[in-house]
Design a protein that fits this description.
The protein is α/β, with parallel strands linked by helices. The chain is built from five helices and seven strands; from the N terminus they run H-H-E-H-E-H-E-E-H-E-E-E.
């Protein structure tokens, strides 16, 4: 066997041994795609598809405006919209009242759409949209909460509202109530209903559990 062939064979064996061990000397390694990418400050976290329990149905502009009016939104508020869809509620709160806004939405395509709409409306400095499960989100800084969810989801959400929001915080829902929690005000609007509650200082025991 010539020296050249011996050298070639040795390099081939070395390469195979290196591949079995997970590295090949002198070669750049491929990224381990089973691990999540590192979070780099200043960069948006990559959006991951997740399954929603609620179909997306946009709230009409008159209803959006009425929801914000019922909550007495002003420039001192931080409006959280849980299940924010294309972002129209928090964008309108920022555009019309100068309020800060946070949208929590599980659908990454809707989050991207909301961010584009906020840029077009010129309120990107006031609002942000986070992709994620609304039940896992920290909403404790909210001074107003808006929702357009299903009745079963509203009931499941209710204990979280009581735990994380300060007494007196307005909670406004489009179309669906929250079970036995009696609204402070109910407004009918040509086939739409808007409900307003405020977080009580003392939560009735029968309301503390989900599903009541």
């Amino acid at each position: 066997m010539t020296s050249l062939r011996k050298c070639t064979l040795a390099l081939l064996i070395l390469g195979l041994l290196g591949a079995a061990a997970g590295t090949v000397p002198g070669h750049a390694q491929e990224r381990d795609t089973t691990r999540p990418p590192p979070i780099v400050p200043g960069l948006e976290v990559p959006l991951q598809p997740q399954q929603s329990d609620v179909p997306y149905v946009p709230t009409s502009k008159p209803v959006v405006n009425r929801m914000l009016e019922l909550a007495n939104v002003d420039s001192t508020d931080v409006v959280y919209d849980l299940g924010s869809g294309d972002g129209r509620i928090v964008i309108e709160a920022a555009r019309k009242y100068g309020a800060r806004g946070v949208g929590i939405e599980i659908d990454p395509d809707l989050v991207q759409k909301a961010r584009k709409k906020a840029r077009r409306a010129g309120v990107s400095d006031l609002v942000e949209f986070r992709q994620g499960d609304l039940f896992e989100a920290d909403i404790s800084e909210a001074t107003v909460v808006t929702v357009y969810l299903l009745p079963s989801v509203n009931k499941k959400l209710r204990p979280k509202l009581f735990r994380q929001l300060d007494p007196g915080t307005p909670v406004v829902s489009h179309d669906f109530d929250m079970g036995e929690w009696t609204p402070k005000k109910t407004v009918e609007m040509d086939g739409d209903t808007v409900y307003l509650w405020t977080i009580p200082r003392e939560v009735p025991e029968q309301l503390e559990e989900a599903g009541q």
